[in-house]
UniProtKB/TrEMBL annotation:
Residues annotated as domain ABC transporter: 3-226
CDD domains (UniProt xref): ABC_MJ0796_LolCDE_FtsE
Pfam families: ABC_tran (PF00005)
Descriptive protein name: ABC transporter ATP-binding protein
GO molecular function: ATP binding; ATP hydrolysis activity; transmembrane transporter activity
Organism: Dactylosporangium sucinum
GO cellular component annotations of the record: plasma membrane
InterPro entries tied to this protein: AAA+_ATPase, ABC_transporter-like_ATP-bd, ABC_transporter-like_CS, ABC_transpr_LolD-like, MacB-like_ATP-bd, P-loop_NTPase
Domain of life: Bacteria
Keywords: ATP-binding, Nucleotide-binding, Transport
Amino acid sequence: MTLHLTDVTLTYPDGDARLTALDHVTLDVPRGTLTAVVGPSGSGKSSLLAVAATLITPDSGTVTIDGTTVTDLSRNDQAALRRRSIGIVFQQPNLLPALTAAEQLQVMAVIDGRSPAAARRRAVDLLDAVGMAAQADRRPHQLSGGQRQRVNIARAIMNAPTVLLIDEPTSALDHERGATIIDLIAQLTHQQATATILVTHDRTHLTAADQITEVRDGRLLATTPVAR
């Protein structure tokens, strides 16, 4: 298993008590597969994603990526692991206004120490893979919402992560464009061999997933494979 959450519990302060966001959650996400996480608002979906991304340390339990127990790492080591092994796609693309589509990707590789020329080649290849090669030199204001989200996804896989974590990528898109983005995520998951978690409220897109897990009140109710 590439990504493994074992007996993860996460709580937050709530007045004099504590609110349980995740309650003994265990989840396996094999490499090259897409796991869709569904559930009502406030059920713990985003908390699960944040723990998997090492953005939040759980009260108990472990997160393992490629055999490394990342919950045991220092904050600096976790940051280095996120840079190299975890791609995160937030709900909003948050592209830098002054940078072109290609430059949005290139900066990720340069931060990681790759040469500018190698970064440019990788960026162009990935933009081509997400259908954005013709827009490589356009800035965010020149792109549609769907195009910006495609750049956002390409940026997340720029450093060839093992794990890809995606939070509600279609919330600002209409149904047709949203379906195209979900299909793209599934395609890239298989091509890039990432262990992908997709948090979504839209159950109409779930046929693209390999397995579906439902979270309610912080508990993982069931994980079921998607029939093909």
